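Why does residue order matter? Because the sequence determines the fold. Keep that principle in mind as you read this record.
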Amino acid sequence: MTRSLSSSTMMAFMATSLITACGGPTAEPGSPATSTTEAPGGGQSTVVDEQSQKNIVAVAVGSKDHSTLVAAVKAAEYVDVLSNAGPFTVFAPVNAAFAALPAGTVEGLLKPEKKADLQDILEYHVWVGVLKPEQLTDGKVLNMVNLKNATISNKDGKLMINDATVVASVPTSNGIIHVIDKVLLPG
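Structure:
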C-alpha cells in the first residue's frame, strides 16, 4: 500500500512538473481562467474561406440573378443565420420574381419599419434540413421556418413549390438552394 501511494505521488509530481515546464495553466486552482485573445467581431458571415464549398449566402452573393434576395437577406439581418452550419433548404427567387411583385413592394419591405414582414416572407423560403430534388415528391407538405406550410408538386418533370417553379438546384456547404421563378408569399 505504501509503495502504491509513493508511485501515485511520484506520478502526480511528474505530471505537475511537466505541465508547468510546458507552459501549462499557471492560475491558482479555483481562480477563473482568463483569455488574452479577443474574439473577432462579426458572425459566421465574416469568416473568409476561399478553399471550401461556398455556403448559401456566398452562393447567392455570387449570383447576378439574386441581388434582390441578397439585399432582402441583409435588410432582414439574416446573413449570419444563413451562413451558419444549417443545414438549410432555401427556395431562392430570382430578381425577375421580385420585379413581378406589385410596384413598390420590394422597396417597402426593405424599410426598417417593415423588417418583421420581410423576415416572415424570407422565412417562408427556408426549410431546416436538406431536401434534394429527388426528395421533393408530389404532394409533400413542408413546414417552413415561419411555421407556415408550403406544398410541393412534381408532375411531368415540373418541380414546383406552391405556384413557383424550381428552375435549378445548387448544393452548398450548409444545405441546398432551389432557384425559383416566383416569390413565395405566406398565406
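DSSP finds seven helices and seven strands in the chain.
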